[in-house]
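Late entry, written up from scratch paper. The run itself happened at the end of the previous shift, but nothing got recorded in the book at the time, so transcribing now.
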Amino acid sequence: MLYLLDANVLITANNTYYPIDRVPEYWEWLRFQGAAGNVKMPIEIMDEVLAGHKENDPLLDWLKGTDTVPALSLHEEVDHRLVQRVVAAGYAPDLTDDELEQLGRDPFLVAYALAGPDRCVVTTEVSRPGNTRQNRKIPDVCRTLSIHCLDPFALNRELGFKTGWKTVTWAHWSDVIARTYRLLGDCNFARHPQGAYEQRNRP
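Output as recorded:
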């Protein structure tokens, strides 16, 4: 599954429950998941985050970091036919220019989710089934178009975020590597106290 982030996922996390200076593990985890190809952000949505920056903005500093943009960027061009489909089917086929402007970049995010299999939109927006036209929320638009949609906490559960994720990830892969070598019979491993392994030559 490829998870496509809405701008509000980053903005809300930094402003409320995961401030960059208080919970840096979350932001390292996001970058890791981006580099692994699990989490991405379309360029139109990333531009939306960058456009809302303020002076001494830690989110902007993080996003402009050396490794962040390459890790999180979705290297695709939007299919404008899909954007039109999202607008017509997800909002209304006869939106005025003013109503279209109010949609912002949301139709682009949903269109990227339509562009391939096993894609999911991640947003902090909450379903409001009674809203119509340009006021429809992303979860409701996704539901109309049969697109999977999650909130950030559901994403964290699906991808297993923990503040100690680095230790868990390294321990897991250390075990995998060790078992592989034991199965091959090439070498023996002894676990360090820190959870790493050292190769020992056979006598």
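Residues 165-200 form one domain.
(Scratch paper discarded after transcription.)
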